[in-house]
Amino acid sequence: MAEQRLLVEGDTCWRTVEAERFAPIIDGADYLAHVKSAMLGAENRILLVGWDFDARTTFEPGRGTLPGPNQLGPFLFWLLWRRPHLKVYVLKTNLRLLSVFERYWYSIVPVEWLNRITSERMHLAVDGAHPTGAVHHQKVVVIDDAVAFCGGIDLTLGRWDTRDHTADNPGRRGGGESYGPRHEVAAVVDGPAAQALGELARDRWRQATGEELPPLGPGASVWPQHCEPALRHVEVGIARTLPSLPEREEVREVEALNLAAIAAARDIIYLENQYLASRGICEALADRLRERNGPEVIVVLPRTSESPLERESMDSARERMLRLLWEADEHDRLGVYWPAVPGGQSLYVHSKVVVIDDRFLRIGSSNLNNRSLGFDSECDLALEDSPDREDIRTHIADMRDGLLAEHLRLPLDSVRAEIRARGSILKAVDTLRGRSLRKFTPHMVSADAGPFAENDLMDPVRVPTSLAVSVASVAIALVTWPLVKGAPGAWSVVRAVGKRVGLPI
């Protein structure tokens, strides 16, 4: 019997469109070089949509093999000077002050003034078309509607790193800071898939500014030099999260796609993510772990989140989710790991990847937390196998095994040989992991528990109906935390009683 398709327009994705070429891009060094290479071919329009931008972002630290200035801001102005018909549009969320330009005073000048003092063909905007507290988390670069990049990488400081993730790489210095090793994943497409992402980006620009940007007709190829396509003429799904607004219903395609993919897994669910905080996703994983003949589940996460606020909210929620999964792992099919570089420093995992068997691959901006499924805006790309496309299945397996080889710091052939010998990806990983891929343990995460886990203000499932109620949930969490911490299982009692009487917990 034929398997049910995972990519369903209007349900688990917005569009399914052909990519004439598709390539995954692993880690920031390749991503930044490929983005610059593609922009070098731009003739009409560059649309940059992201959570953050910084003009000091260096494309090729210490090398500069591509033409033009090596930093984002000077490069864009250099490109405008060389291309008389080119226009550049930069759109970021308004969560933080604009840092598109490198000098401090630029970051505090209203964006309207910046547009007056820069090139008339350079257009900057911040996007406030979202609910209070939400952010636009989509990360999309579209060049001439001909090539588009989509994934989890912003064009900002601290994203550059190579796949060897050494403990101290001088290329990770920028803006007066030194950044730690970082793991990222994105993808690049052309053809109709790029045109669809162009439509998405133009719609974002219209919502933010009221300005309609016209679609561009077919033009010259701007596919990045030295980027080898992994697949050609392949159907790609575009899945989004969009929060509800007065004029728009919420869109939860990312959540629907994740749940459908988890339910469809036969042998292996492989996840890489910055967070593991969504109860809905983790309950779906737990259901699969309880099955006698269910799939193995491998999850790769950062050891800790980056900021104190993230640690208080995301890491404390992760502690609960991990205990849920460990309790459900009745058949020893779960492995949750954090990568370490030589010397023991943790590798910060910022990638957002889902791989299901050799059937399904998802790369994008969405995290496995509540915000990414219904509160912030997100955009993911997905591939699904086809009965007549063995190359798709091969690529999906290559992607998963290649990521594991990167984290295990071993050749791909060695990893695959161990998988064949063990008959299990999970057993192979546990045999090979040494000190480079370390397991989370209950004792390790016990210190992460905190009052803001699963808090409706920090990580809302959808747009809150009342900001006051969400703020009250923080106060209630702080007041009840001593009881919860002191008595195992007390939180479930507090939560049940609170909900019964209408408290926001």
**CATH T-level topology of the largest domain:** Endonuclease, Chain A
Total helical segments: 15
- The CATH architecture designation of the largest domain is 2-Layer Sandwich
* CATH class division of the largest domain: Alpha Beta
Report on the biggest sheet: 16 strands, mixed
What is the radius of gyration computed over CA atoms, rounded to a whole number of angstroms? 22 Å
The unreliable regions are 95-109
Helix content: 25-40%
Distance between the termini: 45 Å
The amount of beta strand, in percent, is 15-25%
What is the strand tally? Answer: 20
Q: Helix/strand/pairing class, anyone?
A: alpha+beta
Describe the structure.
This protein has helices spanning 28-39, 72-82, 104-108, 111-117, 192-209, 253-264, 279-290, 308-328, 370-374, 390-408, 412-422, 425-432, 442-445, 467-486, 490-500; strands spanning 15-26, 45-50, 87-93, 122-127, 140-143, 147-151, 173-174, 177-178, 182-183, 185-190, 231-242, 251-252, 268-272, 296-300, 334-339, 348-349, 353-356, 360-364, 378-384, 437-439. By secondary structure, the chain is of the alpha+beta class. It has 3 domains: 21-232, Endonuclease, Chain A (2-Layer Sandwich), CATH 3.30.870.10; 241-447, Endonuclease, Chain A; 465-500. Helix 7 (279-290) runs parallel beside helix 8 (308-328) and helix 10 (390-408) packs across helix 11. The chain is globular, with a radius of gyration of 22 Å. It starts with 14 loop residues before the first strand and ends in a 5-residue tail after the last helix.
